[in-house]
Amino acid sequence: MSDEEGPIPLRVANKKAYVWDVEDVARIRSQYRLCGVLAGTLPHLSQQNVFLGLPLVLLPEETVLLVELGAAVLIDDPSAYDKPSSAQLEKWNEEQKESIKTQIALIETRNAKKNSENVLTEEALRKRQERAERRRALAQAQAAEQEASEASLFSGDAPTPAATSTDAGPPASTAEVNNPQASSSSLISHTITVPGPSSSLDWYTPHPHSHSTIESARAAGIWDYPSNLQERAQCGVFRGLWEQGNYLGVGIKFGGEYLVYPGDPLRYHSHFVATVIESPTMTLRPMEIVAHGRLGTATKKSHLLCGWDDEKKEVSYLSIAWAGFG
């Protein structure tokens, strides 16, 4: 868990920024209105990342924004693992053994409780069967006595009372009490817990490998975004839309770079599909404008053309929508 007032650690591997702490994910989404995409998911399926688990993979534009705001640092994660000493490995092994012992103890306690409940249940069934046997024996004795009395009326002999002793116990029940012994600890399954963040490992030292600026990370060779005009335009447009209070998602499914939401994507539909134009003098073919307009109308959105001026570091916006149609 990172300090809430300190920068968020973004662990970089293969030039992708990952977030492994749940608290950091919540902070990124609530405080900075960034969504990211979870590892192993498909970027064009919107909102799937909200319901799945870690790690969170930030878009490169989101990563650049957080670092430029001073809200995050980039960590060269593969280089942050030192070679563990014998004492550190022994400590880690002892912690794993203690965890296994705790799990086995809990499992044995649960099994003992379950077996005890089974024994009580079988004891209750045995007593119920005994009561039923006594009632059955008493009914048979009463029926035999009545038959003897009726027979004496015709024969004139004195009635011979039938044996009605109910003190004799019923036949032994065939059901035996089942009380199996708990399995040996070597046969009980257990879980090896591997923490998501590496901050709990004694040999993980991220501070010497942390970078607070994009330039520093680029010089270290762990990060190279943005590296050309198109990527600078994407970063500029992303930040410009974000600074206006919008939430941004991946817009490839709708023919653009970003989906622009006026609020939390779980509560609002996106109003715009944004396309990044890397230069204010870039030529657009008429068919491109028609295609953007038709696609936006079909998906009940307006298509937003975002032109980036790399000299002035400014963004101009032009929306396309079919008036009175769709």
How would you describe what is shown here?
The chain has seven helices and eleven strands. By secondary structure, the chain is of the alpha+beta class. Helix 3 (60-68) crosses helix 6. The chain starts with 7 loop residues before the first strand and ends in a 6-residue tail after the last strand.
Q: How is this structure best summarized?
A:
Helix content is 39%, strand content 15%. It has 326 residues and is of the alpha+beta class. The longest helix has 70 residues.
List keywords for this structure.
6-stranded mixed sheet; 11 strands; single chain; 5-stranded mixed sheet; 326 residues; alpha+beta; tRNA processing; 7 helices
Major sheet description: 6 strands, mixed
Number of strands: 11
Overall shape? elongated
Overall mean confidence score, pLDDT = 81
Q: Uncertain runs with pLDDT below 50, 5 residues or more?
A: 158-183
The span between the termini is 49 Å
Give the oligomer, counting copies of the same chain as homo and different chains as hetero: single chain
Strand order of the largest sheet: 3-4-2-1-5-6
SS strand fraction: 15-25%
In N-to-C order, the SSE pattern is EEHEHEHEHEHHEEEHEE
Helix content: 25-40%
SS-based class: alpha+beta
C-alpha Rg, in Å? Answer: 38 Å
Active site: 261, 269, 301
Organism: Candolleomyces eurysporus
Region (Disordered): 131-191
InterPro entries: tRNA_endonuc-like_dom_sf (IPR011856), tRNA_intron_Endo_cat-like_sf (IPR036167), tRNA_intron_Endonuc_cat-like (IPR006677), TSEN34 (IPR016690), TSEN34_N (IPR059049)
